[in-house]
């Protein structure tokens, strides 16, 4: 008698005859997975299965996916379903995840750009950089931006057109070089760079790296870790949702950037870095063009304060879509300093005696610093913690219910997790701190499409391609000013419905101005840049010595070339042309910023030979 027809065979599947009839197709490990699914209340996944002989490949494909979902989640699908049941029940009940906690304003390091403390922290940070590893989380689709490519391929600014990924890699290489120079006997260390991708971004990220020779980084320095999506949940009983277009597939959605911790843990990289004597892991997000301005001093804070966790923050406008760093004190005495996500801060404050909720104080900002999600973790304690948790991060669920009975969802939901929730499981002895810096210096992400950006309440940041690029010119102009150069005031323009300050278009390669000290060393005399000017510096040893620029100057210099820029340079320069975001004749990366540079005339100089050079008009 064939096994499938044996009356006793597959008794465990008796509740689901269609599965039981198909058991003969399954391998032993698939049988175990099927048992687990039935135990966890997932009988509906098989109820539509036809007789053996029909769609057998699809049935096997179903188990391939179940196997993947099971192995990529800490604790497997059993844990996922059980966690989901609990979180969905809490959500239905309207349970506040911060029940019992009272928020208060935490204290941390507040830095002032350019003062002595800032400069000495930058020096401390550069010294530590050769003991660091960088991790970029770049698995997000960027739905709010709506750009069809990957976000790290977008130009960071359009004077050079260099994309975010190129800028990040060049910055890490500049750190590597500067840090190695500070070690007495010199050092050869290569700073590791991990990129977390997802199915949505993986192939395009690899293609971008490969077609650009890794932007100068050694390919072995770069490691790609791909996050898997998680199963969607159809109802409050955490029944897994089938894909509407394929009944042999479980529908999946991204699990969030918190996956980075379990992926790093299971990759073995952390242990390898520890063996190599590394001390710090720096996490960052996909489109913040200013981020590396903040890294040297923030790493300096971690090193000098001995922070196990250091979150970078900026002053936050109430209701701005960034989490607030908050001290939470539980009725039982426990305290933690943690990011409270923007949609939770307001209800938490209202529930704890702040009737105005998330509002600005007398400074014009929320008293809770805004988390920009750049985290610096000390490697040793990080590994110890992950040995306990395997990188599992506290999760949340955000179902959209059809009505107030909260019995059905508008569409399937899933569990999510955020990388900044890592400190939630830490013991009270952990040193968790944060570092606040000026927004103009450290934070200008590209997240919103033009239409949504134009609707942002007045005074709140746009976080668009327009504001992201303009923020770079503003930051560089302000840094040069602080270094002693005369930089013209900005003018105000409206692009794609967003009013922005337009500063002179100053950009430089990371090797030129990695820290404020390095900029200051290269700005002498009475140099000036007019409002309509663009200055592009690409080289390490380029000095502004009495340069007066009114137009566009592009300087490219080899490492051994020392170039002095003096005298008055004037030309027609590059003008800024308005572009409407609906104008399909322009490329998408231009349309979304609402302007383009019309390159009418420029002076471009190239110094390829070693030695001293001087450009004087
Ligand atoms: O599954 C995912 C989801 C996102 N990401 C990556 O995570 C980063 C952040 O994603 P979003 O830009 O969508 O993040 P949010 O704007 O929702 O919010 C996050 O960034 C804000 C600051 O930019 C605040 O710090 C906030 O607290 C934090 O959750 C991006 O690099 C994105 O590519 C992933 O790698 N995988």
UniProtKB/TrEMBL annotation:
Keywords: Nucleotidyltransferase, Transferase. It comes from the Eukaryota. SUPFAM superfamilies: Nucleotide-diphospho-sugar transferases. CDD domains: UGGPase. InterPro entries: Nucleotide-diphossugar_trans, UDP-sugar_pyrophosphorylase, UDPGP_fam. Its cofactor is Mn(2+); Mg(2+). Its EC number is 2.7.7.64. GO terms for biological process: UDP-N-acetylglucosamine biosynthetic process. The keyword RNA-binding does not apply. GO terms for molecular function: UDP-N-acetylglucosamine diphosphorylase activity; UTP-monosaccharide-1-phosphate uridylyltransferase activity. Belongs to the USP family. This is UDP-sugar pyrophosphorylase. The gene is LOC100285949.
């Amino acid at each position: 008698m064939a096994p499938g027809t044996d009356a006793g065979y597959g008794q465990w599947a008796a509740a689901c005859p269609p599965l039981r009839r198909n058991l003969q197709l399954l391998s032993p490990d698939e049988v175990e997975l099927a048992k687990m699914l039935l135990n966890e209340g997932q009988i509906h996944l098989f109820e539509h299965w036809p007789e053996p002989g029909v769609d057998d490949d699809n049935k096997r494909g179903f188990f391939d996916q179940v196997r993947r979902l099971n192995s990529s989640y800490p604790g497997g699908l059993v844990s996922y379903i059980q966690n989901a049941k609990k979180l969905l029940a809490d959500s239905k009940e309207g349970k506040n995840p911060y029940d019992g906690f009272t928020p208060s304003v935490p204290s941390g390091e507040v830095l002032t750009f350019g003062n002595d403390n800032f400069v000495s922290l930058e020096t401390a940070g550069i010294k530590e950089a050769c003991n660091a590893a960088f991790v970029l989380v770049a698995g997000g689709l960027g739905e709010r931006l709506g750009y069809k490519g990957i976000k790290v391929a977008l130009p960071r600014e359009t004077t050079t057109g260099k994309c975010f990924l190129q800028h990040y890699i060049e910055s890490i290489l500049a750190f590597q070089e500067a840090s190695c120079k500070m070690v007495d006997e010199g050092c050869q260390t290569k700073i590791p760079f991990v990129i977390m991708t997802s199915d949505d971004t993986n192939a395009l990220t690899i293609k971008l790296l490969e077609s650009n020779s890794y932007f100068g980084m050694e390919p072995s320095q770069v490691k790609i870790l791909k996050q898997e999506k998680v199963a969607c949940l159809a109802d409050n009983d955490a029944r897994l949702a089938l894909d509407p277009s394929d009944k042999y597939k479980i529908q999946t959605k991204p699990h969030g950037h918190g996956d980075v911790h379990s992926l790093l843990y299971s990759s073995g990289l952390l242990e390898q870095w520890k063996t190599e004597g590394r001390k710090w892991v720096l996490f960052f997000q996909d489109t913040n063009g200013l981020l590396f301005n903040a890294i040297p001093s923030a790493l300096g804070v971690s090193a000098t304060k001995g922070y196990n966790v250091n979150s970078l923050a900026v002053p936050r406008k109430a209701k701005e879509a960034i989490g607030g760093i908050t001290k939470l004190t539980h009725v039982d005495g426990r305290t933690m300093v943690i990011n409270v996500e923007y949609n939770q801060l307001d209800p938490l404050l209202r529930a704890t005696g702040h009737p105005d909720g998330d509002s600005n104080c007398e400074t014009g900002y929320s008293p809770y610093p805004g988390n920009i999600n750049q985290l610096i973790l000390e490697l040793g304690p990080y590994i110890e913690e992950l040995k306990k948790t395997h990188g599992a991060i506290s999760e949340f669920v955000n179902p959209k219910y059809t009505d107030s009975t909260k019995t059905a969802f508008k569409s399937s939901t899933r569990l999510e997790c955020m990388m900044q929730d890592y400190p939630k499981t830490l013991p009270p002895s952990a040193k968790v701190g944060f570092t606040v810096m000026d927004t103009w210096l450290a934070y200008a992400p590209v997240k919103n499409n033009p239409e949504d950006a134009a609707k942002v309440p007045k005074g709140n940041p746009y976080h668009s391609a327009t504001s992201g690029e303009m923020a770079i010119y503003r930051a560089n102009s302000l840094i040069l000013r602080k270094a002693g150069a005369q930089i013209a005031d900005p003018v105000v323009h409206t692009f794609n419905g967003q009013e922005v300050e337009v500063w002179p278009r100053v950009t430089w390669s990371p090797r030129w101005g990695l820290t404020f000290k390095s900029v200051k060393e290269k700005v002498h005399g009475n140099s000036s840049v007019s409002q309509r000017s663009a200055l592009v510096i690409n080289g390490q040893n380029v000095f502004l010595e009495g340069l007066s620029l009114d137009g566009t100057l592009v300087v490219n210099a080899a490492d051994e070339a020392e170039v002095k820029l003096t005298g008055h340079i004037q030309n027609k320069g590059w003008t800024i042309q308005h572009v409407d975001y609906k104008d399909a004749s322009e490329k998408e990366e231009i349309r979304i910023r609402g302007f383009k540079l019309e390159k009418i005339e420029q002076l471009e100089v190239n110094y390829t030979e070693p030695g001293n050079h001087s450009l004087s008009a």
